[in-house]
C-alpha cells in the first residue's frame, strides 16, 4: 500500500482502515454473473410494475382474478381474495409490489445482502406463484410450456436455490461440473432439472394442446397489441402450426424430454441438451410469449423464456478443471 | 393512460436531489482538494434537471432544443472517450474511466426527448403532441419501442453492475484491493475483457471503479476521491428512474 493511499484511507475511514472489505471482494465467477442476471430480471420486473396500467383496478380484475379459473376451490379462493384487495386498493398494493421487486434486485446485486435477498425472493416467488399466477395453471389442465408453464415466477425461486452462494468455487478440490450443482450436489440438481423439463414435456401433450388449432390459437392471440414486427412473427408462427397441433405438440414433447434427460448423459451430450434448452427458451420467449407482452404496457415481467435460458446456463457443463473432473468421475459418482 | 402523479413527482424530486448533489460534488471537490469525475458529474447534473422536467413539465427550465444539444454533445464526448478506452488509452485527470454507460445514458436521454417531441401516431393515424414525459408516460407512443426496451434493459444491467461493485467502493476499501479486483480477471469468467483492460490501466493511476473511485484511492494528481459510494448510489437511483421512464414509453 502506497503512503498516499494509506494516508488517504486513514483520513477517510471513521473506523480503522482495513483491507478486509475490499479483499473479500472476489472477482465475478460464472455463478456471480448468473446471480447478477437474476438480479437484473427482478429489477426489470420492478420497473415494469411501475407502469401506469398496474395502478388501475384492471390489474386486479384482468391479470390476477382470472388466474383463479379452473383451479380447485382451496387454491382459487385465496386468489380471489387477494385480487379483491388489489382491485380495491390498486395504488398502495402495486407500489408495494414494485418496491419489493426493485429491492430484491438490488439486494441480490449488493453482495452483503445476497443471501437475505435470495431467501426473500424464494418466499415472494412462492406467494406470487399462488396468488398471482394460480400456480401457473398446472392444476387446470390447460397450461402449455409455450405460453409460460409452469409459471415464470416459480423459476425465480428455483434459480435462487440453484444459485445460492456456497463456499464451493470453480477452483475447489472437487470441481463443479456445472454452476447449479454447488448448493445441492449434482444429483439433486439434475433431478430438479428433470422435474422441470419433464413437467414441461407433460404439459405440452395435455388436453387442448393436442387439438389441431389449439397451439395456433394460443400463438395467434399473442399478436394483439404488439409492434408490427413482433405481431408479424406471431402471425407467421401461428400459420406454421395451423391444423398441426397434434404433431407439433408431439415434437415439442420429444424435444423437452430430450432436454430433461440430457443432463444425465456424458458431457458432450449434456451440452447438446443445454443448447437445445437455450434454443427452446428463445423460441418460447419470442413466439409463445411475445417477449412477455412487455410492449403492450401490461407485461409485469419478461415471462419464462429468459429464466429458462438462465437455468440452462446454470447447467452448462464447465470446461474448468475438465481433466480433473474426468479423473475424478470414477470415484465421484454423483 | 398516464402514470400516477405522486409517482412522477417522487422520481422528479429524486432527480433534483441528485442534480443538487452533483453541484455539491463539483464545488466540494475543488474546495477540499478531492477529485471527482468532472465529465460524468456534469452530465448527470444536466440529466437530473432534464429528467425532472420530463417527469413534471412545470419543472422544465429550458426549451427542448437546449436539452437536445446538451445530450448530443454529451453523447459525442462519451463516444470519443469510449473509443479511446477501447484503444487502451487510460482516462486521466478529471475524465470518467468508464464512459460507455454514460454514452448510453446520453443516448437514452436524446431518444426520450425526441420521442416526446415527435411521438408515434396513435391508432387513429393522428400524431398527438404531448409535452413532457408525465403526459406521454404509458401512452405507448414511442417510436421504435424495441430501442426503448433495449435501453431499459441496459440501464437495469448497469444498475446491477453498480450494485455489485458497491462494496468495492466502501469507505473501508483501499485502492490496492480495488485495483487488484479490476486488474485480475482470474476466476472472473465472462467479464467484458476490454473494460477489464481499461480498468486495469486506469486503476494504475488510482481511479478504478464503476465510474466511481474507492475512497482512500488517489488519482494521478495525488488527490483522494470524493464520496465514491454516494456517487454510486445516485447513479443507481438515476438508472432506475431512467429505466422507469423508458418502460413507460413502450
TrEMBL record, chain A:
<feature type="transmembrane region" description="Helical">
    <location>
        <begin position="246"/>
        <end position="265"/>
    </location>
</feature>
<feature type="transmembrane region" description="Helical">
    <location>
        <begin position="117"/>
        <end position="139"/>
    </location>
</feature>
<keyword id="KW-0812">Transmembrane</keyword>
<feature type="transmembrane region" description="Helical">
    <location>
        <begin position="33"/>
        <end position="54"/>
    </location>
</feature>
<feature type="transmembrane region" description="Helical">
    <location>
        <begin position="272"/>
        <end position="295"/>
    </location>
</feature>
<feature type="transmembrane region" description="Helical">
    <location>
        <begin position="145"/>
        <end position="164"/>
    </location>
</feature>
<keyword id="KW-1133">Transmembrane helix</keyword>
<feature type="transmembrane region" description="Helical">
    <location>
        <begin position="184"/>
        <end position="205"/>
    </location>
</feature>
<protein>
    <recommendedName>
        <fullName>Integral membrane protein</fullName>
    </recommendedName>
</protein>
<feature type="transmembrane region" description="Helical">
    <location>
        <begin position="91"/>
        <end position="110"/>
    </location>
</feature>
<keyword id="KW-0472">Membrane</keyword>
From TrEMBL, chain B:
<feature type="region of interest" description="Disordered">
    <location>
        <begin position="174"/>
        <end position="193"/>
    </location>
</feature>
<keyword id="KW-0812">Transmembrane</keyword>
<dbReference type="Pfam" id="PF17197">
    <property type="entry name" value="DUF5134"/>
</dbReference>
<keyword id="KW-0472">Membrane</keyword>
<feature type="transmembrane region" description="Helical">
    <location>
        <begin position="140"/>
        <end position="161"/>
    </location>
</feature>
<feature type="transmembrane region" description="Helical">
    <location>
        <begin position="6"/>
        <end position="28"/>
    </location>
</feature>
<keyword id="KW-1133">Transmembrane helix</keyword>
<protein>
    <submittedName>
        <fullName>DUF5134 domain-containing protein</fullName>
    </submittedName>
</protein>
<dbReference type="InterPro" id="IPR033458">
    <property type="entry name" value="DUF5134"/>
</dbReference>
